[in-house]
Amino acid sequence: MKTILVFPFLFLLVLFNTLHAQDAISADSIIKQHIFSYKEIQVLEDATGKLGISDITSQNNNLHFSSSKTFVPKATHRQSTYWYKIKINNGKENSNSFLLEFYDQTIDNIHLYAPTKNGGYQLHNFGARLNFKERELHHKNFTFNLDRNLKGIQTYYIAIKTEQPAAVMIVLKKTNWFIQYGLREYMLLGLLYGMILVFCLYNLVMFFAVRQKQYLYYVVYNLSIGLYEVSSNGTGFQYLWPSYPNWNEVAYGVAIYLAVTFSMLFTREFLHLKQKLPVLDKIIIYYLVLRTAFFLCCIFVNNHLFVYKFIEIIPVTLALYAGVYIYRKGYYPARFFVAGYSFILLGIIIRIIKVLNVGKMPFGPINFYSLSFCLIMEMLFVTFAIGDNIRLLKKKKEKAQRRIIRELESKQELKDKLNTELEQIVARRTKEVLEKSEIIEAQNQELVLQAEEIRQMNELLSLDNTQLKKNITEVTEARVMSKMMSFEEFTRIYPDNETCFRFLSELKDKNSFSCKKCKNTSHYAGHQPYSKRCTSCDYEESVINGTIFQNSRIPLNKAFYMVYITYATKGKISSYKLSEMLDIRQATCWANLNKIKGLMAERKQEFKNAGQDGWNKLVLA
Predict the structure, then answer these.
(1) pLDDT confidence of residue 179
(2) Which CA distances in Å does 120 have to 61, 100, 116, 321, 448?
(3) Residue 63 pLDDT
(4) Tens of pLDDT along 267-285?
(5) Which of 393, 456, 469, 582, CA to CA, is 20 to 30 A from 441?
(6) What does the domain layout of the chain look like in residue ranges?
(7) The pLDDT of residue 483
(8) Does domain 18-177 have CATH number 1.10.150.120?
């Protein structure tokens, strides 16, 4: 009997392990490279940061590993240590050598535990906190050569701890493809830096030619972008400051600050904001002061503040708005300026989407080099704008010279042309008078039609006034009979939005939560007051979502009273009376009154014997 009971238990145990088993990647089956994702990489977050490899490999802690819920897992909490487990099947062939590559160069510390022949694990250290010379392979990305002599499925553990959020993309590559890809990547980076230097030299030449400081600002901006690129992709740490990891931690923040500052200074000068848009010019100055204060806090107080790079969308938006405004005012070189900064805004949005892990992003050149491409396009278009500005200045100068010549020549012909011009003016004015007469006649006809419409509207208003007086009498009688509250009395109970939100939250809590997108029943507090965020899909439901007040634009306590008084008078109050009581347009009161009456008609059975508090049932739509 005991044996019969054991077999079902063993079957369920095997089935459970099969459903939660981690996929092992066969090294011999991949063509060039493979990115570990979903069930191929398992994650364990150590909030204490005290677990070691012996703790992680124990049976109890292994049960806490779970498959990645995203294509590429992320390390978001700076206090935690993130453990990742991957499995590689070496098979029987040794014809190809393989390595592991980590794409994110901003990770501070990586501890990779590789299996050994005796069943233990050997520690290998990587990370941006170490000198570049301490890396096993001198490459801008963190790389590790696999031991192909170990047969079968081998398990690798990676512990990552970093100050700023990082995308933990682990890639299994063939060594020959790694070399080809690396040479191609370094060649493209060389072209990128070369283009940046070309733009710098071009604007430097323009500065010495016209002696306008805006071009010098743009030179420093281009150099700052170059510093940001070498800082973010790791080539700066490889070639410029390999022995200064502390500088490597803040170099990108310094580069961004310089780029933003000189970009704003260039915008002010190039678009002549001080003369054409002084209000925005002062806003940019105030922003630069605040940005400088924030930069000093990042340098001297907490370097971790540099991770908030999304604030750079503010200066880009200001510059883009200034460009659009100045272009609409007739300054045509601004069209290239707008095109360039549109690319920057696009690049920042793509980077924000990547950081927030919103949607599915392509893990390739479009994702990793989108911002670099957008920056190059911005430099290209702004260079066009500068050239167009020079062309415009030259054109204006030539036009002024031609105008002087024409004026000198026209003085001799002025007397003869004067009479001809006067005759043309008289003919044109006569034609305009005739046209205006026809317009006035047409307008008179329209006025006659409007007078007829006004008469019809007055008749309708008379009928409405008669109905209004009748409704006022009925509502007054109902108020006397039911002793309903006035708006002043009602606002003592619901004085502000906070009270109304709390009431709606308590009313909705009587019903169980169900996400409108994925039907999940678990939630936690959202960003808005009394809102709820789904634990599964992060959809946030506001407190007024699913109520009669959703999409309402009137003050919430007035909307509450509108529901109450409509229920209390059984819908017999008029929109004119509501407009007078609540100081809201009659059309708005009429629309909301019809909406409430419709709900009362639909739920007529629910309101039988509901009492004075029956209006509460109208709240949930």
Answers:
(1) 82
(2) 17, 19, 5, 60, 99
(3) 56
(4) 888 888 888 888 988 998 9
(5) 456
(6) 18-177, 212-395, 414-483, 487-618
(7) 53
(8) no
